[in-house]
Amino acid sequence: MYSEKKVALVHYWLVGMRGGEKVLEVLCDLYPHADIFTLVVDRNAISQKIQKHRITTSFLQRIGGRTHYTKMLPLMPFALEALDLTPYDLVISSESGPAKGVVTRPDAVHICYCHSPMRYIWDQYPEYSRTASILSKAALALTAPLLRQWDVTTAARVDHFIANSQFVAKRIRKYYRREATVINPPVDLERFSIAGRFDDFYLCAGEITPNKRIELAVEVFTKLGLPLIVIGSGSTRALRRTAGPNVKFLGAVSDTVIADHFRRCKALIFPGVEDFGIVPLEVMASGRPVIAFAAGGALETVIPGETGMLFSFQSVDSLTDAVRNMEQRLAEFNSERIREFSKQFDRPHFSKRVASFIEKCVANGEQISSTSL
After folding, report:
1. Closest CA to 358 of 173, 177, 118, 183
2. Residue closest to 278 by CA, chosen among 361, 358, 205
3. pTM of the model
4. Which end of the chain is more exposed for a tag (fewer CB within 10 A), N or C?
5. Residues 6+ apart with CB under 8 A from 104
6. What pLDDT, in 10s, does the model give residues 309-326?
7. Ordered strands of the 228-231 beta sheet
8. Partner residues linked to 181 by β-bridges
């Protein structure tokens, strides 16, 4: 598809394999000869599928960006704009950190798959600032206004936006004044299966960061005395100090261990606000329900009484009520029906939708170009 044209895939940074990189893998399948551009790369942390492509990095790679890229946010606009994409007819940027700010040819088609406008300079700026060190907080306060201006300006360089959820589409409309087509990210259903029975524990899973609100789940389950297992990388020191003996922290574990816990848990506890939320769908693909805070992407996947339950406030009382309700109604959830729901988000479905959208955008771009005076 689009094989006669040169294609570039632009990804913010390649230092792990999370939801954004899973989307990039699908784009790699669609465009096997595409070149990849990124701010920094850690080749030991990415899949073989991505490594097969020619990867060009920015100057941040040469000044320690592979390890310290999070401290180089003010330099990222300069690094992106220095990348040479003039040979490419189609540019697909994958945006969560900055990526859409690349400069393309006037006649090139630029499509941005937006996982999220940069959280740390927009709606989650106060939270990031509150948890940052004094030096980082001062640097962020000085640079954030300029980064916001640059971020809005570069939205005009994009011909078509794809948002990974309705929640993100609203944020694109709010911050960039642009419309976006919603195509939810893929779930690798083949990794997950339904267990014959579930065990006596609830689960929290994902990177442990302040916006995940894991501390809320720890407080609630310590209070209730029910078993909770927390899986994910990140500091758990503060959480462990307040956790009861019924709360276990496994840290970062293998994909096999994660999949095993997904299929054996009573339910996933999802107390944060996510742009979309892949983990809840992976748990649903394992046939288990989700208890989620009623905000963000969870509103698009957690259907009360069918795939899980929602709680209205990020408070101990609200989550406690939801857990108690789940304890009483757990038998009402059907694992087969929950997994069936998750199938609409599988990789083949995502690949087909993205390919169709891109083909239409390219065709429209060529028609405009050929009819221009």
Report:
1. 183
2. 205
3. 0.88
4. C
5. 85, 86, 88, 91, 110, 157
6. 999 999 999 999 999 999
7. 247-251, 228-231, 202-205, 268-270, 290-293, 308-311
8. 162
